Amino acid sequence: MTEPHDLTSLAERLRAAGRALAALAPAVEAGRPWPLSEDFGTAPESHWGPPETLAHVAEMLPFWTGEIERVLDAPADGGPVPFGRVAENPLRIGILERDRSLPPRELIARIDAGVERLASRLEALPGEAGRRVGVHPRLGEMAVANIAQRFAAVHLEEHAEQLRSALGKPG
User: Fold this and answer.
1) Which residues contact 15 (CB under 8 A, 6 or more apart)?
2) Comparing C-alpha atoms, which of 13, 5, 8 is closest to residue 150?
3) CB contact at 8 A, 155 and 60
4) Cis preceding linkage at 170, omega within 30
5) What is the reported pTM?
6) Within 38-168, where are the H helices?
7) DSSP code for 125
8) Among residues 30, 23, 32, which one has the least CA distance to residue 115?
9) Percent of the chain surpassing pLDDT 70
10) How far is CA 72 from CA 8, 37, 125, 130, 157, in A?
C-alpha cells in the first residue's frame, strides 16, 4: 500500500510506466494493421491485442483521474464517497470497442496526456489528500493514494507488460 505522503513517488512511478508503454510505439506502428479481437470482454477466453490494450489504457487514465477527483471533492464530514467501477462496466467496454479502431499514434498521445495530467495532479496534492477515502463497489474503502497506485500506476505497468508480450518484446 502506498503511504499518502508518497504521492510524488507515485507520480514518478506512473510516468515511468507511461514511458515504458510509449517506448513500444515504434513496434506497434511497425505491426500495423492489427486485427481487432473478436472477443474483447472480460470472459476468460477474451483476448486483447495492441488495439484493445491501447484503447483501454487511453480511457482508463482519465477515468481514474476523475474518480480520484470525485473522492477529493467529497465533503470531509459526509463519509466516504462511492467511486470506481467493475471490469464488466458496459460503458468501459463500449469505449474500448469504439476506440480500438483509432490509429495507435492517437491512443498513445492520449495515454501520454493522461499520464502527465494525473502525475502532475498527484504531485500538486498536499500529503493529507492521499488519505481521503472513497468506497469502491468491490474492494470497499480505499485512500486516494491507494486508488492511484492500484488503478493507475500498477494497472498501467500491467498493461505495458501486456503490450510488450503481445509484441513479442523481451521485458
Assistant:
1) 115, 116, 119
2) 13
3) yes
4) no
5) 0.92
6) 50-73, 90-99, 104-124, 144-148, 155-166
7) S
8) 23
9) 95
10) 17, 37, 10, 9, 24
Confidence of residue 4 (pLDDT cuts 50, 70, 90): very low
Residue given cell 499514434 in the structure block: 105
Report the Cα–Cα distance between both ends of the chain, in Å, rounded. Answer: 25
pLDDT in tens, 64-113: 999 999 999 999 888 899 999 988 899 999 999 999 999 999 999 999 99
Q: Which cell goes with 81?
A: 464517497
What cell does 1 get? 500500500
Q: For residue 155, what pLDDT is reported? A: 96
Averaged pLDDT for residues 123-143: 95
Which residues 6+ apart lie within 8 Å of 5 measured at CB? 127, 130
Domains of the chain: 4-166 (1.20.120.450)
Residue type, 149: Q
